[in-house]
Design goal:
Chain lengths: 433, 904
């Protein structure tokens, strides 16, 4: 099995590492931000991150330095940094580990980012269900505050950077960056219509950057070891390390930090131990529940933003779910649609009305009540949702349906012809929703 | 003063191949509309911030891979948009298919049927079949209170109602709850609606999700006769659309973009119409025979009234007859009434209900601005950067002005200084301007003047007096500076209870804003020494350079629909039409010559004087038109005694009021919906209303009755219609005639203001700069009671509305939580309130809107409460004040299970 130098998971995989401030500092933590505050201008930090090629780890993969560059420079305008720690994408659990096991790494990244964009206040928006993460982060923030690392005059630099923890209340949509902003403002977490974009009109109508936990965790390392070092890892367009959360029918599910650009096969077979014995891979979701399904034919696709997109799916949140031949694809799509139907916020028509419609059709097919015309109907309805909603949720919810229909249409047809689920005769007991 | 629109750069774009040039920043959907291209939509509304949730307005824009919502897309130079491409048509059909999938299609029994956006768009853009084969989603019916019906299964979740309730009304009683396909509209705290009941959510709902329970199942929209008139309930001057069938008002609405209210209404305007339909209207003339009022014919009634008037005039002279008219009447009614009184009856004693307050405003401002109108227009309110709102609980008194002020404060960043006796009560579903104030100066009751003095003192001490004024009127500035310096800060802050730094900060905000408007309302206008306070507010505006500067001005607020017209058209003993002083011989002769007759000689009596003279036996006959002083004034005014001594009391009204007990003849009058005419709002806009209904029974318009009686008395006052009277008004009183839509009628008259600045200011200047301390609360009566205005009842007509009576939390004594705790009562408990005049039992509502030691009770609910208050008459303006007194409170019943309804 190829081995790679761990960057983000290095500390926590060191035996005896507790994740408290002393341990983090013993491992060299808080040196990067200290140095940045003492020696670099915000513009220089932005430039370093731009040159590193770092791309957002939340899902869309937008270049981080470029995103920061959209923030107006006017010092009289208040600016905010929001840390998207609302990790809710099914099959994704990397941020959770970064938060629970090494919280100061992301706090240091937060301070660097806040400094770079000129924000005096940063909010960490933490997924409501992360009760342990909330305790860990709160403790870590208090440690850092007591040391003068956050709050007034951080590290004696004369700069004020306050970091607050804001716990969500358990809605998937609040991971969407503008819904996240609404939620921090104390409103219902509904995505905003764009334009205006958060960089101009974000939290409290001020310029705002929203960065993912993993994105920020990379920053101390980039600032310490230099953009060239970072850019050399991974591929030219998708540089750096990436934590993939591998789940499903594999022998060793878990988080694996590997360079971007390794083949999907390597991740599943080498790192995650391969599919469980006696079974074979049937389908793979390569980037969280919002990503289109892959089949074994895609195992040689490399895990970088461009290659996966070219193969018809997306790198997304890095959640890789492996399904073997025992999994019914209609059931899988139905299960995922159950999630999306449950989590649709209801703000815009196509998603609100479309999600329940799709869910009902899939339910009928899975339960043996499908009609031949349902399949074209599914495709047509998905087309009326994708690209027509307020946020990317609309594209997300149709991806599992369209991709399973594309790769496994025969399974749908079998359900309709046999008037039952061929694989899960007792499907009622299995239905998650 | 309206400012010219700032020069904007324009943008040229192409929509469906057609070049369109619009102002920069225009939204694409609006640009399309300007080009005559209609983009279908549900959630977009020009009044609201775009939300882009319905996705109905998707259009194709070149160089953008996805379709874009045109409702939140600002136009850009060279943008090429298509609203008619196959892709767009497909998207629209897709959205409609989704909406219709779960829509109940209960159009036959839906009150929206026939005026439903969804019906219209479905008709235009969808195929005539549905591919939906699943069971429909439905919402269980939820009772939403007595006035508004909620049918969530019909909802398209566009959130217009929620956004309107927040952005326009600032009530936030509505919210959305649950999510996904179960997203629904509802109260967030209470399931039953508790709000301002403005009806705006019903009006803005594109479908039948929110409908009017008062009119439920009563109509199909196309059956209704729709006629526009002017709302009779306050001085805001809203345009109403009276919708009737078979001469019964079914509902009242107002179209967005229409009138000074832009289609917005308040509870009284939207729900208060039903009084017109009541069966207990006076439908035939009544005469007293053997002690009973019995029906008679118009022929007989007219002959009787004319005969009795003529006999009293012959025996005692015209000066033994007095007349009082309601200031809700139209300009034509008011004008003809005073002409009738002065010429036909030969009496100088004519007055209106504007005497209850607006006369203070006119008396104080006439020599400063030339009139008593707002010198700032509503559009100036929208653009103001700072507001000074003095003694006005705008939500309750002038809701439409309050919408504009709140909007400017919330969305344009305008600063808001409130000066008054109300505290903040955040979280209340009936909005309260103090909750939005950036500078709330909550003062002791009756001490608004001390705060205004403090503001003047701050301006002078902070060297913020308008530089041009110092140059052009140095004597005025010096004189006022001298007077202000004589008042000590210690005295001002002790009296008002407002700290000096707070006053200074507020003065800075007012002075530093380029566009600042000072509004003042009934707590100033209807209080002791009102004219002095108002004059002082004018001084403040002058010193700050905010009286005549563009975008600035003074805004006197009127409680009555035509208080302005009543004074300007001479329904007052001291003024002839055109605001001409009755004592001015030269001007009087001009009016007389226009009338081709002699004016009655001698000074006229005001309302209070008429009552006094009646008690003394010198006034023999009284003609009451739409007003009933027995209902309006407290017992201490001894109205009953006065009426009992009259030889002739004629009551002309739509309903029998308490004075009818003493009336000799009652004449059935048409209501606002049954007559045509024009009304002058406090802004000075003269707006025409049309007759929406035939008068019920044998009721007649006031003008018709004046003409009938006059003709019978041998002095014809005949006109073809209201326009004919309006034409005469323009001839006789050109000063107050409408100047056309483009001219703000409240412009300050330059000659008047310069006269004021040269020496006019001297009048009573010492007195208005001497702050009067409030009488100390005697230990026997430790609480201070103020009668306040209620949003849900402001007079006889609204008191008769069955719909308005269903609104929760009315007729409650507002009391501060600390006082309530000390008394041991909670919301819903009962207390006995005693004053030197008597006692009354009232139900309590705990609210921080009332400050400690002060209690508030809405006027127009309980006569027993009003009768606790002694009456006092201003010696100069003859305005009676009867809104404040000291009271003692004792608990009768603690009641009150604590509930969240009681909060706020």
């Amino acid at each position: 099995m190829p081995t790679y130098e761990k960057i983000l998971l290095k500390n926590m995989e060191t035996p005896g590492y507790t994740g408290d401030l002393a341990a983090y500092e013993r491992a060299g933590g808080y040196q990067a931000v200290r140095k940045v505050l003492a020696e670099s201008t915000p513009e220089q930090v932005v430039d370093v991150v731009k040159r590193s090629g770092l791309r957002g780890r939340g899902g869309a993969g937008f270049p981080t330095g470029t995103k920061w560059g959209f923030i107006p420079k006017d010092p009289s305008v208040p600016k905010y940094l929001c840390v998207n720690a609302d990790e809710s994408e099914p099959g994704t659990f990397k941020d959770r580990q970064l938060i629970e096991r090494d919280p100061h790494q992301m706090i240091e990244g937060t301070l660097i980012a806040a400094y770079a964009i000129g924000a005096k206040v940063a909010y960490i928006y933490l997924r409501g269900e992360f009760a342990l993460g909330a305790r860990v982060l709160e403790r870590a923030l208090n440690e850092a505050r007591a040391k003068g690392y956050i709050g007034k005059n951080v590290f004696g630099s004369g700069r004020d950077i306050e970091v607050w923890l804001h716990r969500g209340a358990g809605a998937y949509i609040c991971g969407e960056e503008t819904a996240l902003l609404e939620s921090i403002e104390g409103k219902r977490g509904l995505p905003r219509a764009k334009p205006p974009f958060p960089a101009i009109n974000g939290l409290y109508q001020q310029p705002t950057v929203i960065n993912n936990v993993e994105t920020l965790a990379n920053l101390p390392h980039i600032l310490t070891r230099g953009p060239e070092w970072y850019a050399a890892i991974g591929t030219a367009k998708s540089p750096g390390m990436r934590i993939f959360s591998v789940s499903g029918h594999v022998k060793r599910p878990g988080n694996y930090e590997v360079p971007l650009g390794i083949p999907l096969r390597e991740l599943i077979d080498e790192h995650a131990g391969g599919v469980r014995d006696g079974h074979r891979i049937k389908a793979i979701i390569p980037g969280g529940a919002s990503a289109a399904f892959f089949t074994p034919e895609h195992l040689d696709v490399t895990l970088d933003f461009e290659s996966i997109a070219q193969a018809g799916s997306m790198l997304g949140s890095g959640g890789v779910t492996v399904m073997d031949e025992t999994t019914c694809m209609v059931w899988a799509a139905y299960n995922l649609m159950g999630f999306f139907h449950h989590e649709s916020c209801g703000k815009c028509t196509p998603c609100r009305e479309g999600s329940v419609w799709l869910y009902r059709i899939l339910g009928r097919i899975e339960h043996g009540e499908g009609r031949p015309e349902d399949l074209d109907q599914l495709v047509r309805l998905c087309g009326n949702i994708a690209g027509k909603t307020v946020c990317a949720f609309g594209d997300a919810e149709v991806a599992p349906i369209l991709s399973t229909l594309k790769h496994f249409r025969h399974e749908y047809e079998a359900h309709i012809q046999q008037k039952r689920c061929p694989m899960h005769p007792n499907v009622l007991a299995m239905a998650a929703h | 003063m309206s400012t010219s629109t700032p020069a904007t750069t324009t943008v040229t774009l192409t929509i469906n191949g057609q070049a369109v040039t619009v102002a920069k920043g225009t939204l694409l959907i609006e640009a399309a509309k300007q080009a005559g291209v209609d983009v279908p939509h549900f959630c977009y509304h020009p009044k609201l911030k775009p939300d882009a949730n319905c996705r109905m307005c998707l259009v194709e824009i070149e160089k953008m891979p996805k379709l874009q919502t045109s409702c939140n897309m600002p136009v850009a130079e060279g943008m090429v948009a298509r609203t008619d491409s196959p892709k767009v048509a497909e998207a629209r059909a897709g959205v409609l298919e989704f909406i219709l999938a779960n829509h109940p299609l209960d159009c036959p029994i839906c009150d929206k049927g026939g005026e439903c956006h969804l019906q219209d768009e479905a008709h235009a853009y969808t195929p005539n079949y549905s591919a939906f084969r699943e069971p429909k989603r439905f919402f269980e019916k939820e009772y939403f209170g007595p006035l508004i019906d909620k049918e969530m299964t019909r909802c398209v979740q566009c959130l217009r109602c929620v956004r309107y309730c927040d952005e326009i009304v600032d009530s936030r009683a509505l919210g959305s709850r649950d999510r996904g396909s179960f997203l629904q509209i509802g109260g967030l705290v209470n399931k039953e609606l508790d709000c301002e009941f403005c009806g705006g959510c019903i009006q803005i709902c594109p479908v039948g999700a929110l409908t009017n329970r008062v009119a439920q199942y009563d109509f199909r929209p196309w059956q209704l006769k729709k006629i526009e008139t002017i709302c009779p309930h306050c001085g805001d001057g809203c345009r109403l659309k009276v919708e009737s069938r078979d001469n019964v008002v079914v509902r009242v609405t107002s179209d967005a973009g229409r009138g000074r209210n832009n289609g917005d209404l308040c509870a009284k305007g939207y729900f208060g119409f039903d009084a017109v339909n009541r069966d207990d209207r006076v439908k035939k003339p009544l005469v007293r025979r053997n002690g009973q009022l019995v029906e008679t014919s118009w022929f007989e009634a007219t002959a009787l009234v004319a005969g009795r008037f003529a006999a009293i005039k012959a025996q005692h002279g015209g000066a033994a007859i007095g007349g009082v008219i309601s200031a809700d009447a139209s300009n034509e009614d008011l004008y003809l009434f005073q002409k009738f009184m002065r010429l036909v009856l030969g009496s100088p004693h004519v007055d209106s209900t504007a005497r209850y307050g607006h006369h203070n405003t006119v008396a104080a401002l006439r020599e400063v601005t030339g009139h008593g109108r707002m010198t700032a227009s509503y559009e100036d309110l929208d653009r103001a950067q700072a507001f000074l709102v003095i003694g006005a609980d705008l939500t309750e008194t002038n809701p439409i002005v309050s919408y504009r002020v709140k909007h400017a404060v919330r969305f344009q960043g305008a600063k808001l200084v409130t000066v008054g006796r109300y505290g903040p009560n955040p979280g209340a579903f009936v909005s309260n301007l103090v909750n939005r104030a950036t500078h709330p100066l909550t003062a002791a009751p009756g001490q608004e003047r001390a705060v205004v003095l403090g503001l003047i003192k701050s301006l002078i001490e902070g060297r913020r007096v308008d530089g041009r004024l110092i140059q052009e009127s140095p004597r005025y500035v010096e004189r006022l500076s001298g007077l202000a310096s004589r008042v000590s800060w210690d005295q001002l802050t002790a009296q008002s209870g407002v700290a000096r730094p707070a006053i200074e900060a507020a003065a800075t905000v007012y002075a530093d804003a380029e566009r600042a408007v000072a509004l003042f309302g009934r707590d100033v206008v209807r209080s002791r020494g009102a004219a002095d306070t108002i004059r002082l507010i004018a001084d403040l505006a002058l010193l700050a350079g905010k009286l005549t500067a563009p975008g600035c001005g003074l805004g006197p607020l009127a409680d009555e629909a035509n208080a302005q017209g009543a004074v300007e058209l001479g329904a007052a003993p001291e003024y002839l039409p055109g605001l001409v002083p009755a004592g001015d011989g030269e001007a009087g002769r001009r009016v007389a010559s226009a009338w081709k007759d002699e004016l009655p000689s001698g000074p006229g009596w005001s309302l209070m004087e008429m009552l006094e003279e009646a008690r003394a036996g010198r006034l023999k006959a009284l003609y009451l038109v739409g007003d009933d002083p027995l209902r309006s004034l407290p017992a201490s005014a001894k109205v009953g005694e006065a009426l009992a001594r009259l030889e002739l009391l004629v009551c002309q009204d739509a309903f029998l009021g308490p004075s009818a007990e003493a009336a000799h003849i009652c004449l059935p009058a048409a209501t606002m919906a049954e007559r045509e005419g024009s009304w002058t709002n406090h802004e000075g806009r003269v707006q025409r209303g049309k007759q929406a209904l035939d008068p019920v029974g044998e009721a007649q318009a006031d003008v018709a009755m004046f003409s009938d009686i006059a003709r019978t008395m041998g002095y014809p006052l005949d006109y073809a219609d209201a326009k004919d009277i309006a034409a005469e008004i323009a001839r006789v009183a050109p000063a107050v005639a409408p100047k056309g839509a483009s001219v703000h009628p409240g412009a300050v008259q330059p000659a008047v203001v310069s006269q004021y600045l040269s020496n006019g200011y001297e009048q009573d200047v010492e007195r208005r700069f001497a702050p009067e301390s409030s009488p100390r609360a005697a230990s026997a009566y430790p609480f201070h009671l103020t009668l306040i205005q209620s949003l849900f009842r402001s007079g006889a007509l609204t008191a008769r509305s069955t719909a308005l009576a269903k609104v929760p939390h009315q007729a409650k004594l507002l009391i501060h939580p600390d006082d309530a705790a000390a008394l041991g009562v909670g919301s819903g408990g009962t207390v006995r309130m005693r004053s030197a005049q008597g006692a009354a039992e009232v139900v309590v509502r705990v609210s921080t809107k009332a400050r400690p030691g002060r209690v508030l009770f809405p006027e127009h609910y309980l006569d027993t409460v009003r009768d606790l208050i002694p009456i006092e008459v201003d010696p100069a303006t003859k305005v009676p004040t009867f809104r404040e007194t000291a009271v003692a409170l004792e608990r009768v019943a603690a009641a009150a299970v604590p509930s969240r309804n009681g909060a706020g």
